Amino acid sequence: MRILVVEDSQVVSRVMRHLLTQELCCEVDVAPDMASAKQLLAQNEYFVAITDLNLPDAQEGEIVKFVLAKQIPCIVLTGSWDAEQRERLLQLGIVDYVFKENRFSYEYTAKLVKRLCRNQSVKVLVADDSLVSRKFIRSLLEQHLFQVIEADDGISALSTLNDNPDIKLLITDYNMPGLDGFELIIKVRERFSREELAIIGLSSDSDESLSARFIKNGANDFLQKPFVHEEFHCRVLNTLDALDMVTRLWEQANLDYLTNVFNRRYFFNLYEEKLPVITQKQGSLSLALLDIDFFKKVNDTYGHDVGDEVLIEFANRLQQSFSAHFTVARIGGEEFVVGFKGLNVEKAYVLLDRFRMQLELTPFETSKGSLNISVSSGVAEFTHSETIDELLNRADQGLYEAKDGGRNLVCIVES
Questions:
Q1: pLDDT tens track for 76-116
Q2: For 291-323, what is each residue's pLDDT tens digit?
Q3: Active site residue 381
Q4: Second CATH level (architecture) for the domain 262-413
Q5: What are the extents of the domains in the chain?
Q6: 2-110, CATH topology level
Q7: Sign of the dihedral defined by the CA atoms of residues 405, 410, 414, 415, in that order
Q8: Phi, psi for 365 (deg, rounded to 5)
Q9: If we measure between CA atoms, which residue out of 325, 352, 407 comes closest to residue 374?
Q10: Which of 142, 150, 231, 334 is the catalytic position?
């Protein structure tokens, strides 16, 4: 990723280069005037341009129009505050207008570029029955590189969310036919938690209670129409930053720090909730405990860094084989567990043995060369009368039998 900074102040350009390279793995080109900026723009493709308004050879902000004409997102830095100029630039479609006041202004700009990078993979759903309003909001979001989907009422918005569960932000108007903004939020929150989907409510209604009602019904924020560009962007970015923070906290609590599969805590909490439901519905559940064979020897021979590489690759292969339909977790050291919800022990055995054979035939590529890795597994089926601990202990008996039988085996423990 390449970023262009057009700034005649060497101090400012050095600060921006430092902050940008600190926040992102990127290349930063600096142009002190419009002529050199044009040369760089002709030679390179840029993700974003950060431009000063007053350059030695272009003192009327000409650089902004030039950058936008090349369809490059533009962030404007300025040392003077001019309300009319700010409004004119925002109408042109710049990403943001930042007053060069102190170091925080430059830190804000660097974080904004980082946010723009993340925005490219963020889907936003705009629900509004007004075509004009939808298109206006869409244009603001696309300036910040979001993927935007539109819905013309609450019912179609609900359908779109069901078809696109990876949408991260819903922006919904209050007054819509069929299903208004409040009703939409209530139905959305029945399926999507605050950790999964953020919601911002909108309304041109003068009712002062709307803001509180939106938030009490499950929205993260509310914005009164009409709104200025900057307030809209600030609300959207703050909401998504909060969502990202919640996501990071959830991941720290529930994902294994090394392999990025679920951890022991998540697995136990999940299946403590699932077991009563499985029992009530007389459903099937098989649980497998897997242990990498002779893993201590890998650590002793090649070092713990290579051992970590093996654990990461093993977890990746487990996820590729099972995570689409089942639950994979690391419960400690070189031990992993797979929960086969809906499968009896015979069907789970077939999948595990296929995984074992594929693992044996495909060496692990590490920094110390190729390593042949095998796995031993024990698998047990839920009896509808035991706890998750008891089921795991029975799978552990099967794992012990597999090791005792020479390793590189899958052993079934009968109930």
A1: 998 877 778 888 888 888 999 898 877 889 999 999 999 99
A2: 999 999 999 999 999 999 999 999 999 999 999
A3: no
A4: 2-Layer Sandwich (3.30)
A5: 2-110, 120-253, 262-413
A6: Rossmann fold (3.40.50)
A7: positive
A8: -90, 120
A9: 407
A10: 334
